[in-house]
Amino acid sequence: MRIGELARATGVSVRLLRYYEEQGLLVAGRTPGGQRVYDDSAPRTVRRIRALLDAGLPTRVIREVLDCVCGGEAEVEPCLTPVLVEQLQGIEERIARLEGSRASLTRLLTTTS
């Protein structure tokens, strides 16, 4: 399937598909004319990439763990658990910092009124 067909099948822009390929997340063959050609598993791979991005994983982590995704778009092998736990802890730390910033801003606003 060509890149436009993959974009239509997945709802992901051609630009993003090229980016996924650039990041090593998606593999495309080439026609003699240089056009990208994807195999039949590409739509499933793109949906998996989207599910992992939606979970907050950066592309560098997705590249490392994409092979551990199985079944549906978001089912993962147990080998992924440590990576996902680490990512979740990072998100929780960022949330805690943001909540601290919000509390500080709230205090500043209440003292300036």
TrEMBL record:
InterPro entries: DNA-bd_dom_put_sf, MerR-type_HTH_dom, MerR_fam
Domain (HTH merR-type): residue spans on this chain: 1-68
Superkingdom of the source species: Bacteria
PROSITE patterns per the UniProt record, alphabetical: HTH_MERR_1, HTH_MERR_2
Annotated keywords: DNA-binding
Annotated CDD domains: HTH_MerR-like_sg3
Keyword field contains DNA-binding: yes
Family annotation (Pfam families): MerR_1 (PF13411)
Gene3D superfamilies, per the entry: 1.10.1660.10
SMART domains for this protein: HTH_MERR
Name this polypeptide is given: MerR family transcriptional regulator
Organism: Streptomyces eurythermus
Record lineage: Bacteria, Bacillati, Actinomycetota, Actinomycetes, Kitasatosporales
